[in-house]
Write a structure and sequence with these properties.
single chain; six-stranded antiparallel β-sheet; 17% helix; 956 residues; alpha+beta
Length: 956
């Protein structure tokens, strides 16, 4: 598998099953064909004509069990998306695929029961908490999601009913190497349906989306769109599309995730996970009494039965319901039971047993009452309503062995096993079939892989394991589990396991030895397999390198429950970016999202950016802050940063960048801003807008790539309070130690900071109410009106020096230092009038503008554009003397500052920012509209009207 592509139709580029009696064959139900190879031209085949012939055969009817049905409501064809005229159509009894009679022979979409068998490299999905989604369809049963709870994968675009999730195949995007694969190319990762109605096919240029049915195909990497009938001729290799230059290629990321869930692997916070049900795991994912697939029938000619698929389902009381006619034959009942569990096997290999609460009584309905007539009805008087589906015992079976990462040109090898067959003998036979008799058998393992939708479990089988007995045990536990189990033969290589664990929340400014002692005392780390590779003392964080899977899992769970100096530690599992494999023309984008900013719109953006990019380049700031992201990209030679949040969030990221700059290979990355806060003054200056209101995330990424690089000053503010500390000995004064903060936008002293402080305190008291910008601005109006009559005479309580010169202050209530020409949600406080005394303000001129305001009314007039502030000075070095405690705010973060000195000076090198280009974006491949965020209907977006803008007057 040199190309490493893993698409839903996964046997691309392998030798034809027809070329060998033991290669690539499987036994299915009579209505179904074998699993289809992908409909692309073969790339590494030994004989192209058999491959083409086989593909043509399986694509005619890819596993569906079509049955003519009477239509009782308007219905659309899932193949052509046209309306089905008349009263009859053809529906698959397993996956509900609807079709015209004329379209049946052209269907190329596989039935959901065959999807797991076509996955090349199984990758589990990353489901968040259940939600309600409008105008979407389940990828398993193909029915509407609206009206019932559904799950959405945070990494790919899979959407399924909660009850259907256990039957979804593990075909999520493969976003990294895990130590086994080493791929140079990636194929398209096709996902069916849920496209916008305006989506257009890349092949025929016609509309391929539909709001009526699950239709159309989209590549989850490059966003390419196509009809189900057209995508088969698309070249198989994916180029990652328009975003390829900012995409972190999966080949460049290595991550050892064996013992970590997908949530932990992609650093998704725990509170966004699916709420776990009682006894919930991936094998028993069915809900109790699940009746979504088949409702209880009121027809007296039918009866509803509870079907368990094995002992595990019985223990958990988890079953599926089927409705069958009372005159049904036993084969029909078994067939319906298999369909309910999406099992594509031959019904003759299975039987039903009655279910009892006390024990399991072997009562095969096929042999009940000694009857042998095949036309005999199943039901008699007092027939049990609950049954267990069982596999009939066999003396021998044929199993598929996948070559794993041996990089050979076959999809799988079929091996016949019997009672004496062991793991050792099967490995020997497989190596002989592969022509590798000379390869040492000791260097190969047989791995059992359970391909669950939420977790992929791997088990290395022992040499003397009896495989036939193991298959029987799996089927006895769960018939469905056997359908999701696959066997791989892999080389037993000595992997150099390196798991990187970021540990934050430690006391700052300690020595390396002190941090090591804290880790030993609180975490009991094993020095033989754990080492400290990086220390960030100013942030109170370290990075551990762990050479053992079990030790990494132990430390990860232990850190989350450890408190040091009354502060909770944080743990983040980090991927390893192999910077030498990054293409020269690639400049990956590091994305930071603050989900608490902008009325919680950050949560939807997190999903969108994880879907459009590699999830390993998207970081949530509430999970460890910016430092884990910068550390992950520390060896990347060139990268850009996108910060999604308010001005305070941007300052947070810029501050972390300043502290870690000397450890980065790219010491001056350019930074773009997606404004999510309330004021968003920096976003306005850099043309990113007044605030995010649902723009297409794909278009935002294109704008970031086309943005212009500009420089911006940053400023250091030294706060040296001289307040007397009570209880000092001999009357000696002990002032508080100086504090240093960084400023990007502006610093306010007086009335401006008081309003910001009152708003901050109100938000701390009731954070749940501050979920929209409109409400936030309304609170500012309220606190502003309360202070409209206050008079403070700020000019009497402070003294100002500019460039070592004393400056006399006018009668003002607020003093504001401006670095950017936007204040209080877009107001021009400095004004546009020319003045020979001062230079025209710029964000990179090394100067600050000092402006005064006379009160709340003056601030309101500035907001409305009627007035500007009082120009006081312009300079590069400032000293402010506070004679009494006064409110101070820096970039929206307010506090009460005791009497003392405030010194403002330039902070080192200028930072590189990205300003949105005025030029129109280049035309793309038509996948822009389809990449829009899918919003949960519970949280509807709120928009500001033009009339509401008049309420912004008091927003700092």
């Amino acid at each position: 598998m040199a190309d490493g592509a893993r698409s839903r139709f996964g046997n691309l580029g392998h030798r034809s099953p027809a070329s060998s009696p033991k290669l690539g064959r499987s036994k299915n139900r009579t209505q179904q064909q074998p699993p289809a190879p992908p409909p692309h031209p073969p790339q590494a085949t030994t004989s192209s004509s058999p491959v083409a012939k086989h593909q043509q055969q399986v694509l005619i009817c890819p596993g569906h069990s079509f049955k003519k049905v009477t239509l009782t409501k308007p219905t659309f064809c899932h193949h052509c998306t046209d309306f089905i005229w008349g009263l009859a159509g053809y529906q698959c009894e397993v996956c509900n695929f609807m079709s015209h009679e004329k379209c049946r022979k052209h269907v190329k979409i596989l039935c959901a029961c065959l999807a797991p068998s076509t996955v090349r490299v199984p990758v589990a999905h990353c489901f968040r908490q259940p939600g309600h989604y409008k105008k979407k369809f389940c990828s398993v049963c193909r029915k509407h999601l609206e009206g019932s709870t559904a799950l959405r994968c945070e990494v790919c675009d899979l959407q399924v009913h909660t009850d259907c999730a256990p039957f979804a195949c593990s075909d999520c995007r493969q976003c990294h190497q895990d130590g086994h694969q080493d791929h140079d190319t990636f194929h398209h990762h096709w996902r069916e349906g849920n496209l916008s109605s305006s989506a257009r096919c890349e092949v025929c240029k016609k509309t391929c989306g539909s709001s009526e049915v699950l239709s159309g195909m989209r590549c989850e990497w490059c966003g390419l769109l196509a009809h189900a009938a057209c995508y088969v001729i698309v070249p198989p290799v994916c180029t990652f599309g328009r975003l390829r230059n900012m995409m972190m290629h999966p080949n460049c990321v290595r991550f050892y995730c064996r013992n970590f869930s997908k949530m932990h692997s992609f650093r998704i916070t725990e509170n966004l996970q699916t709420e776990p049900a009682e006894d919930d795991d991936d094998v028993d994912g069915l809900s109790q009494g699940s009746a979504k697939e088949t409702q209880t029938s009121t027809d007296s000619s039918k009866q509803t039965l509870k079907i368990f698929d094995g002992d595990d389902a019985v223990k958990r009381s988890q079953f599926r319901l089927i409705s069958v006619p009372r005159i049904a034959k036993h084969e029909e009942v078994v067939e319906a039971a298999l369909r309910a569990y999406y099992i594509p096997d031959d019904q003759q290999d299975y039987e039903l047993q009655t279910y009892c609460q006390q024990d399991l009584v072997s009562d095969d309905i096929i042999n009940r009452n000694g009857a042998t007539d095949d036309s005999r009805c199943v039901f008699r008087e007092a027939v049990p309503e609950a049954w267990i589906i069982r596999a009939k015992p066999k003396d021998q079976e044929v199993i598929k062995i996948y070559p794993g990462w041996l990089k050979v040109g076959v999809a799988y090898i079929s091996i016949r096993i019997h009672k004496e067959s062991t793991t050792k003998s099967v490995i020997e036979e497989v190596l002989q079939e592969l022509g590798r008799q000379n390869k040492s058998q000791k260097n190969c393992n047989l791995v059992e892989v359970l391909m669950g939708s939420k977790q992929v479990q791997r088990t290395v089988l022992k040499e003397q394991e009896l495989l036939l007995a193991r298959l029987r045990d799996i089927r006895k536990t769960s018939v469905r589990q056997m359908n999701q189990t696959r066997f791989y033969i892999v080389e037993d290589t000595n992997m150099n396991v390196q798991i990187h664990l970021f540990v934050g929340g430690l006391p700052p400014m300690l020595t390396s030895e002190e941090y090591s002692n804290i880790l030993k005392n609180n975490l009991d780390i094993k020095e033989k397999v754990v080492s400290v590779t990086h220390i960030y003392p100013s942030q109170g964080a370290v990075v551990l390198q762990i050479a053992c899977f079990s030790e990494a899992e132990r430390l990860f769970m232990l850190v989350k429950d450890t408190v040091v100096n009354d502060k909770q530690l944080t743990a983040v599992v980090l991927p390893e970016v192999m910077h030498t494999k990054i293409p020269q023309n690639c400049c990956p984008l590091l994305v930071f999202v603050n989900p608490k900013s902008g009325g919680l719109k950050g949560r939807d953006l997190l999903h969108s950016f994880r879907k459009l990019l590699n999830p390993h380049q998207v970081f949530e700031l509430t999970n460890g802050g910016p430092l884990p992201g910068f550390h992950t990209f520390s060896q990347v030679p060139h990268f850009r940063v996108l910060v999604c949040g308010g001005d305070g969030t941007v300052g947070w990221v810029l501050g972390a960048l300043e502290e870690i700059r000397h450890k980065l290979a790219c010491s001056e990355p350019s930074i773009a801003v997606l404004p999510l806060g309330t004021g968003n003054d920096l976003g306005r200056v850099l043309r990113w807008g007044a605030g995010y209101s649902g723009e297409d995330p794909y278009s935002i990424l294109i704008s970031v790539e086309e943005a212009d690089n500009v420089l911006m000053d940053r400023w250091t503010i030294l706060l040296d309070a001289q307040e007397v500390v009570d209880g000092t000995e001999n009357g000696i004064l002990e002032p508080e130690p100086p504090k240093i903060v960084q400023m990007n936008n502006y610093c306010g002293i007086g009335i401006d900071a008081e309003l910001s402080l009152d708003f901050h305190q109100a938000r701390e008291e009731e954070p749940g109410k501050f979920n929209s910008r409109f409400h936030n601005k309304g609170v500012y109006v309220k606190v502003g009106l309360q202070k409209i009559s206050h008079n403070r005479n700020l000019h009497k309580d402070i003294k100002l020096q500019v460039n070592q010169q004393e400056v006399e202050l006018p009668n003002i209530e607020g003093l504001i230092f401006l670095n950017i020409p936007s204040w209080g949600s877009g107001a021009d406080l400095w004004g546009s009038d020319s003045d020979n005394r001062y230079e025209k303000p710029r964000i990179d001129d090394g100067l600050l503008e000092v402006v005064g305001v006379t009160g709340v009314v003056h601030m309101g007039q500035v907001q409305s554009g009627l007035r500007s502030g009082i120009r006081i000075a312009q300079g590069s070095y400032f000293r402010v003397t506070l004679l009494k405690p006064i409110a101070v705010q820096v970039d929206g973060e307010p506090w009460i500052q005791p009497p003392g000195q405030i010194i403002i000076s330039a902070a080192g090198p200028k930072v590189h920012m990205l300003r949105k280009s005025k030029q129109k974006q280049k035309k793309t491949t038509g996948n822009v509209k389809d990449s829009k965020t899918d919003n949960v209907t519970v949280n509807e977006k709120s928009k500001l009207s033009n009339e509401d803008l008049t309420l912004h007057a008091y927003c700092p």
